[in-house]
Amino acid sequence: VLTMVLIFLAQLALLGLLSFALAPYSVPGNWLPEPKGNESKYLYEVWALKYSIFWIGCFAAIVAFQMYERLDENGYMLVCGGLAAPLLLQPFLAPLGPREAAQPLAQRYSFKANAWIFIFSHIGNYWYTHYFYTVLKARYTMPAWRLNDVPLALTFATHFYFTTYHTFSNLMLRKIETTWRPSSARAVFTAASVVAFAYFTAFMETFTISAYPDYSFEDRFMAYTVGSAFYGIYFIVSFPVFYLLDETAAKHTLFQACMEALGSGMLVLMLLDLVRLLLGIPFAMKGALWSCTDCKGARH
């Protein structure tokens, strides 16, 4: 605990020092997009923030009351898929505001944002999880349908987790951009803020689910310290790229959004593998295309 406190205090101290070199605008910056100028993104971020309260409450109850002990492979799919469904179905069934309702599906910000997050989440589960297996000796031991030896339910859980993370990172980056004037100092401060928030996000996820016994590490302290930095690589790449999605008047096409998510996924993969090589750890991906572990009545 003391180590993590010192790490976070050092990050805050560095950001505090860097902030002295920033030149503020004459008016306060804003956390959310301008409602009139970027209605769709504004409404989406408000919706994502409100929904975050709901899914976090659900997960907290599941862990606190150990309801996961009653879940089988289908129960995990039902819980995680059910919590992801409102986010995934919203662009189809409940467009956010009159402007989005008048747009074709592929032009709606909420649809592009969901596509971006889903692609990045799937890449993370399908590929990056094996780096956690190899580098941090992580294990998932719950009953699960598995794709490439990764519980499929996690793809859906990651979707609502990452929606929340990237919404908060949008707020942070927008506040920085609208509070201080462009300069080299602001660029350095922005980069440092992304790194700090990425590390904080990664640590908090690992810490808050530490009471869940079916996700374990060989060395819990290493998972908190080094593992948070390893996991934070995801967000060092994804936070600034996702923020740019429809942030200005020049809107992304669905194709551009998907390509940026895929490109971000590839860059993260390269960085994770670079870390693995620097640590001198051999890598082998041994997962089957489709399997079921500890499943009730399922064929393995």
Automatic annotation (TrEMBL):
TM region positions: 6-27, 48-68, 115-133, 153-173, 185-209, 221-245, 257-279
Gene Ontology molecular functions: cycloeucalenol cycloisomerase activity
Segments forming a coiled coil: none
Membrane in keyword set: yes
InterPro entries: Cycloeucalenol_cycloisomerase (IPR020532)
UniProt entry keywords in alphabetical sequence: Membrane, Transmembrane, Transmembrane helix
Name under which the protein is recorded: Cycloeucalenol cycloisomerase
Provenance organism: Diacronema lutheri
